[in-house]
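WARN  no MSA supplied for this record, continuing single-sequence
INFO  ligand: NAP
INFO  echoing inputs
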Amino acid sequence: MSRPDLLPVGELPPVGVVPRRMHATTIRRERFGEPPGSFVDEVVDVPALAPDEVLVAVMAAGLNFNAVWAGRGYPVDVIGLRQRLGEPEPFHVAGSDCAGIVWAVGAEVPRHRIGDEVVVWPGWYDSADPHVRTGGDPMRSRTLRAWGYETSWGSFAQFAKVKWTQLAPRPRGRSWAEAAVTTLCGVTAMRMLHHWHPHVVRPGDPVLIWGGAGGLGVYGIQLTRLAGGIPVAVVSDPERAKVCMALGAAGTIDRTAFDHWGPLDPAINDGAAMARWVSRARAFGQAIWDITGKGNSPAIVYEHPGEDTLPSSIYVCRPGGMVVTCAGTTGYMASLDLRFHWMMEKRFQGSHGGDLDEWARFNSLVEQGLVDPALGHVGDYDDIGALHAAMADGSAAPGKTAVLVGARGHEPLGPREITGPDLGAR
Ligand SMILES: NC(=O)c1ccc[n+]([C@@H]2O[C@H](COP(=O)([O-])OP(=O)(O)OC[C@H]3O[C@@H](n4cnc5c(N)ncnc54)[C@H](OP(=O)(O)O)[C@@H]3O)[C@@H](O)[C@H]2O)c1
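INFO  complex generated
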């Protein structure tokens, strides 16, 4: 078949036939700001492949908060960053979660055949990097970038461009939308809870999970429960609490019942103000004990809100425990009272994404039904801007959100009930 110019979203040419152009939801510098305005559907050329790259026909894409950051151009101007690295396109295609079909392969791709059904790991790195070639963790490679954030050609388009190292088989028994949502937050959760020895979740360990019904939270709860830990989820409304309980939380805490959030400065230098803060943080700690039992404080605190919550996270973490963080959604001011930190010998650990082994282990749990993808909403390709706006203002449906691209018309749109993992499958 001759090469078509452009097809409507939801229509694919015969497998392996690559159109010249495609629909892509782009971010441009002149539109940097809040969604939905930061995202616009355009027609762009399908990207050419380097020898180690694969073109994937996107069947469904998962939403992640990083596309909100990309659209804001803050804290990183992702377009300027890439242009400085030699990539000329004046636009960015976001999207770090994807399920799709291999449509074309570069000349040096050692595996993956056209027609393979795959999911995409968002860790992009140069496999020629000596650190990686000699067995080093790709997460520490100087070439590591978050695909769809620090690289373009992510999943909010008809075709995505990836390194061959980013692909794994689509988990069996999962719809395109379910398969699309798990990768970035799943692998991040896996590393946060199982990588930082000796602070890994163990049977009986309470783990405090911020944003329990959000993208990271839904997997944090399930991985804690699977390891025999006690997941305590923080939420902001009863609907989200219900989702957390379905996923295996031992209990939930409504953060709107407390008002001590934010950085410690200036309270830390004012005795009375600090005493007030401590009494509120204690009340929050008591709410945790109401679930875990008196004195049973979190062995691990699963952090990502950042500025608003970090002082409390450090405070309620048990002596010798760990606060592990992968983000600062509410701000980057990491304030903590060092007295609680050193006296109680606590650990504050950064964590970013996860490696291929962590991803394989997570995918296997999804495939076995031991982890529910926690798909809460399926939207259409045309909804990408609006759905990111809901994510940015906190009104998104609980759980993960997918949009249908190639699978448009093949799966129902709208809310999905999150029922939780099939633990009978263990
Ligand atoms: N470094 C990495 O590898 C990595 C990987 C994935 C994600 N991230 C980052 O992690 C952050 C969270 O991602 P996500 O996918 O979980 O986002 P999400 O789906 O939007 O969920 C975040 C949750 O945080 C809670 N939250 C919002 N404001 C809060 C506040 N002021 N205090 C406490 N909780 C608050 C909300 O739950 P309630 O309103 O119910 O409390 C929300 O559901 C983002 O910044 C994202 O970019 C980093």
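The chain has two domains: 21-185+354-425, 196-350.
INFO  checksum written, moving to next record
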